[in-house]
Design a protein that fits this description.
Layout (H helix, E strand, L loop, with lengths): L1 E8 L5 H14 L5 E9 L2 E5 L5 E3 L7 E3 L2 E3 L3 E4 L10 H8 L9 H8 L1 H8 L9 E5 L6 H8 L3 E5 L9 E3 L5 H9 L4 E6 L4 E10 L2 E4 L3 E5 L6 H5 L3 E4 L6 H17 L5 E9 L2 E8 L9 H8 L4 H14 L4
Helix pairs in contact: 2-3
Amino acid sequence: MKNVAIIMGGYSSEYKISLKSGEVVYNHLDTNKYNLYKIHILSEGWFYVNDLNQRFPIDKNDFSITVDSNKITFDVVFNAIHGTPGEDGLIQAYLKLINIPQTSCNYYQAALTFNKRDMLSVLKPYGIKTAISYYLNQGDAILEDQIIQRVGLPCFVKPNKSGSSFGISMVKETAQLTAAIEKAYAEDDEIIIESFLKGIEVSVGVIKYKGETKVLPITEIVSENDFFDYEAKYEGKSSEITPARISEEEKDRVEDVAKRIYTILKMDGFSRSEFILVNGEPFLLEMNTVPGLTAESILPQQAREAGISLYDLFDNAIELALNRNNY
């Protein structure tokens, strides 16, 4: 049987959500087919955590563990880390160096998509529509009038490299801008300020499934808050409607753009892209390459709608990783 390390946690504000995602993966894979190991990757250290909650340190030289004098190595890693180091390319590069396949995309794609402004810049020449944006690095002068002149009001201030909507603010008047920028800097030293797009927010999962690139049923996001923030995502302050209440023409357009982006970026594994439909045209907000896998998460909802069980979804990801040619 293959030894599967399910990595979860991470170093960002998203680590608690990642631990939940990892538990869901652990509970839905076949223990008759795989030996499953929960691996917590945390700021304080990397550990194998057994069912008795005992912790055993990871040897980072070869990503192995020693339990009762037995050394255990892994055939494949299931990546369930949201944020750094699982979604920004660091863990992918490390695993590639020591020749262990993993379920998410390759290190370059992870790093690129985790950096919102770099990804949007790469996709622009392909005709992918995006919001008007203004970039800031920590220490840059905050020229409020110049920013508002470019992006208008209301606008969104976001950390450039962060997920789960941590540090995002909707700014409705100029007086709120500096506080919103400081809030975003608490998460990242780079910021993206974007124009407000009025339309329907949708989330689109694209995965490799049984060797094919597959677009999952589209989810419409209806938030009780001003936007799809952390509360809306994880504390029930939103409705997620799958399939989305959009026309067949809009559906085809979003599916086409989502699949094109996946192909252009040479993606692998799971992805979930967020769009705003403005008069039927999809505008890309961001892409997540390690999307949430909890019961509340969008990608599992979409897979269910497509008739794909969590077992099939996760098992397929492991099979693809083991058979991928880039290791």
